[in-house]
Amino acid sequence: MRKLFLVVSSLALSLFVFFYMNPAVHAQSFGWGYKKNSDHKVPEIGKYRDMLDKYGAYYADHSGDKVVYLTFDNGYEQGYTDDILDVLKAEDVPATFFVTGHYVKSEPDLVKRMANEGHIIGNHSYHHPDLTILTKDSMKMELEELEKAVAAITDQKQLKYMRPPKGVFNERSLKWANDLGYIHIFWSLAFADWNTKAQKGGQYAFDQIMKQMHPGAIILLHTVSSDNADALSKLIKELKSQGYQFKSLDDLVLKDMLPKAIYGF
C-alpha cells in the first residue's frame, strides 16, 4: 500500500511539474474570429476586446472614419503579388505585407519591391508555428529571425507589426509580443480566399469584401488568390468613390496615440 502511495505521489508530482512548470502546455489558446453583421459596422469580438486593448493590439479602427487598411499575408508565392503591387502603385494605396521566412528566402525581389514602393513589411514569424505553444525565448527567436531576414534585403531594419500564424493567440502570446516591442494586427474583414483550388473569380472576391465593408476595416487578403488580384483595382476605385481613404497601419497607431499624448489617456 505504501509503495502504491509513493508511486501515485511521484506521478502526481511529475504531472504537476510538466503542466504547471511548462508554460507552453497549459495556456488556453484561441483562434481569431468575430461576429459578422450586415449593417456595415465594426464586428463585435466579445471577450477578445479586453485582451487586445490590454496589450495594444488592433483588429479595426474604431474612430468611425471612412478609412480602410489593406493587409496581405504572404507565406508562399503563386504569381499574383506583382499584379497586386502594380495596382497599389497605380492607385497610390499603401498596404502591409505580413511575410514568413520561406517567403523572404524564396521571393527576395518581391519583398524588396514592397519595401521600395513604401509598403510596410509585417512579421508573420519565420517558420509559421503556433506561437501559443512556444516558450517566450522560442517566440522571440521566431520573430527576430524573420526581422533579420527582412533587414538583410530591405531598408526596414525593424518590424513593428506582427500577425500570428493562422490567427492563433492567447493572452500570454499577446503579452510576450508586447514585451518584445511588437503590435498584434488582427482583422475585421476577411473571407475564404486562400484556397487556390477553389477560386471563383474577381467578382466573387469583390462582392465578399463589399458585403462586409465598414468604416475602419482592417482587411486580410492573401496574395495567392487570383480572385483578389482580379478584384483589387475595381475594389479600390469603388471604395474611393464611396468616400473611403486607404491608410497605413502607421496612420492607425498614430491616430490612437495622439489623444493619449495630448490628454494623457
UniProtKB/TrEMBL annotation:
One GO cellular component term: membrane
Database matches in Pfam families: Polysacc_deac_1
CDD domains: CE4_BsPdaA_like
Signal sequence, renumbered to the chain: 1-27
Descriptive protein name: Peptidoglycan-N-acetylmuramic acid deacetylase PdaA
Keyword Signal (UniProt): yes
GO MF, one annotated term: hydrolase activity, acting on carbon-nitrogen (but not peptide) bonds
Keywords of the record: Signal
Species in which this protein is naturally found: Lentibacillus populi
